[in-house]
Amino acid sequence: MSEPATTSPVPICPPERQNQRVHRHPEHFPTAPGAPTTSNAASSPLVREYRKGNWTIQETLILITAKKLDEDRRIKASSAPMDPTTTKGELRWKWVENYCWNHGCLRSSNQCNDKWDNLLRDYKKVREYDSKVQSNGDLPSYWNMEKQDRKLRNLPSNMAMDVFQALNEVLQRKYATQTSTLRDPQTPSVSPSPAPLSVRPLLLAPASSPPPVASEKSDSSGTESSEKHEGSDTKGSRKLGKLSSSIKRSASVLAKTLQNCEENKEKRHRQVMEVEQRRLEIEEAQNDVNRQGMLNLVAAVANLSSAIQSLISDR
């Protein structure tokens, strides 16, 4: 009789390991805080197809909201201690792109950056024109002008009121936070200064009973300490006043510099367009000259052939 074949049993993996082998998780983009965490948003693919073309008002408002939340996020991150779970070096505009993507604005980080720069430039032009309108009542309001009139005055032709108000809120809030952070480090140096000056009257109090001269000295020291206290307060207020005035001057200089930069860019653009227009005109003139020369040559050849034929016929 033949011996039964000895076959080794096939190892069976436990169901947990089988599930680990079957399921593979694709990579995903990090979602922005405050964005809806649905299954569709969680299963977004790695490759994104970005929308091209002009921005709609809804997309622009989503971008402005994203920038506002990004500023809040960065301020909290600078004031709060470092969280080890957060990823260091997260790109600023990548966070804005993820927020816009989760809210229906399918734009890339480069598109968001370029659009934000254009929005800031248009906002500054409209704000400066509004200040001119307030000082000079003869000028028409920007919001009452037609697109052609806005172009003639070198103003953005399609700035919406909702977009301008949203930008104004974000920029005013950013300026307020910057000024508050600049003023906070100055306050501790002003308030504690009078504290050691108040110790002198307490040290001179026991010596006031025997002679009246000591009481006079204590009174004079008290007046000196009060004068020093007032002097320190005035110095602190002067420092704050100088700081605020320097901030205003730097802001005005920065605004003028940006305005001059934009004007120079527009001048260069106009000069390039004029040179291109002149080049086209020169090329058209050359083409006309060549065309006229060919016509004259054809006419001369025709006249020559007719003269030859007449000579042959005469003979």
UniProtKB/TrEMBL annotation:
Q: Which residues form a coiled coil?
A: 258-292
- Polar residues: compositionally biased ranges: 178-187
Composition-biased stretches, type Basic and acidic residues, lie in: 225-236
Q: Say if the entry is tagged with keyword Coiled coil.
A: yes
Q: Which domain of life is it from?
A: Eukaryota
Cite the entry's keywords alphabetically.
Coiled coil
The reply to whether Transmembrane figures as a keyword in the UniProt entry is no
Location of region: Disordered: 1-44, 178-246
Q: Pfam families, per this entry?
A: Myb_DNA-bind_4
- In what residue span(s) does the Myb-like domain sit? 47-120
- Biased composition of type Low complexity is found at 188-207
Q: What is this protein called?
A: Myb-like domain-containing protein
Question: What species is this protein from?
Answer: Rhamnella rubrinervis
